[in-house]
Amino acid sequence: MITDLTKEHPDKTLWRFALPLFISVIFQQLYNIADSMIAGRFAGEHALAAVGASYPITVIFMAFAVGSNLGTSVVVSRCFGAKNFGEMKTAISTAFLSCAGLSAVLSIFGALFCPLMMRLIHTPENIFDDGVLYLNIYIYGLTFLLFYNVCTGIYTALGDSRTPLYFLLGSSAGNIVLDYIFVAHFHWDVAGVAWATFLAQGVSAVLALVTLWRRLKKLPGKYSSLFDRDLFGQIAAIAVPSIMQQSVLSVGNLFVQDIVNRFGSSVIAGYSAGVKLNTFAINSFMSLGSCLSSYTAQNIGAGRRDRIPLGFRTGVRLALIAAVPFVLLYFGFSRQMMALFLESESREAIRAGMGFLRFVSPCYFMIAIKLTTDGIIRGAGAMKYFVIATVPDLILRIILANILSQFFASTGIWMAWPFGWIATTVLTIIFYRKITAVEETP
Asked: pLDDT at position 135, please?
């Protein structure tokens, strides 16, 4: 269902728009968590550690998918808000052709350098081969990953947050079932986890692409060409800084993973489980930011910049509400959360995961506001601010994790996270105020 986000008050529009997208993220993260749960439960602590050790590298590839999603979404939103459907269709075809080329480059890069990257972060030998195996299979599905993310970005730009939800419901269920079959019954261990993700992601990408193509045929306007350099430049102007921002965080996480790896596979396993749960929360908040990116871009396209502060206030309220259950679960029931991934015998891994969750979860209220505000900054095209606000988080997390881990062992690594989040949140709010101050100037 296509929705115009430039008319109703955001208290009405954003709630309806955000809820299906939020549920989509929940199901997407559930099947990501299911990978680790089934690996830990049926293949053992070492399998969970192998998947976890490779995770920061997969996040680098995900950064390109997320950046492509955001760049396409903002440009398509502006065209849709201006009711320029012909240009919108050309922007969409340009995005897909660009992603086809990007996926080829990333696949070659991954095949050549993933083992080296695993070496550089000092992956323990007992999990190295399984980690590389997981990455090799993951790379086969990069085209599906990119295309699916571009599709969801386009649906979001058109104000349709329900269609991606339907795909994810089916894909999540399929991934969990395949995980269980491949790992618990076929005993494929880490390879089974990777192939389950590959198949579920592939089916979702194909269905999303076919459905989108049918929907676009019903809209007025014709393609001026299949690839437009100007529109490519507009998409890249949003996508490249987004990729840079995500990649900077990913590289930062690689450095953090390197520090974690020094404490052995048990700590890696606990950290892996904790990070999966943390990613669940963070991506949920990011989904609200994506909603606000589309809301902001549509309203700018329609000449309604005055509606941006209204959307900000609604978005912050939604973010704070979304943070509550994560804080309660992760802080108050951290042991039970770890028990989802690990057997009771894995005491050291459970302690590590619990410590991580208890340090980061109280800061969710703050980071939720930051990620929501990011959405407005992206939608307004202020990508310089968006990238700059990321840097303090990266620097502080790496420096403090190195220092504090020397005094507090692995606990010192978890202690570093809140400091980075505080700095980046303060910067983001300052930049948002600059954007709205400029827009309110006659």
From this structure: 92
